[in-house]
Amino acid sequence: MIEFALEQATAEDVASLEEEVAYFRTKLEDGTIQLEDDFRFHKKLLEICRNSFIMQIGTLLLEIFEVPMRRLKVYDAKRLLEDHEQVLQLFQQGDGAREKVRDIVKKSFRVYYEALDMDE
64-76: per-residue pLDDT in tens? Predict the structure, then answer.
């Protein structure tokens, strides 16, 4: 999905992602961070795709992961911020970012493995 979003992204989309990362960082720093703040970033990525099918599937996946994510013993928002920043960097780099997508996405999925109590 990120590769598709990279293809569709405009300068305005990148600016919007920058705002989402700044919002997440502010919520983390002031101690009011919630799971919904993480999901806001993911929903923005889905919107950038401009594809209703991807939007529906992505929204469904967020709904599926919501309950296990809420059950995590430790919600590591700092780690999620780092993941969001890495994804943002892909969008800021533009064309040179495509080969880095898989590694960054795989790394970011570790929180979902933990939420579902799965081994990588």
Answer: 888 887 876 556 8
* Angle, vertex CA 49, rays to CA 45 and CA 51, nearest 5: 130
Q: Bin 118: left if φ > 0, else alpha if -120 < ψ < 50, else beta.
A: beta
> What is the CA angle 102-8-23, rounded to 5?
75
Question: Domains of the chain, with CATH numbers?
Answer: 2-115 (1.20.120)
Provide the CB-side half-sphere exposure for 67 (13 A, CA). Answer: 3
Q: Which residue did the predictor score with more confidence, 57 or 73?
A: 57
For the residues 18-29, what does the mean pLDDT come to?
Answer: 96
Quick one: which of 81, 74, 68, 72 has its CA closest to 28?
81
Decide: helix, strand or coil at residue 68.
Answer: helix
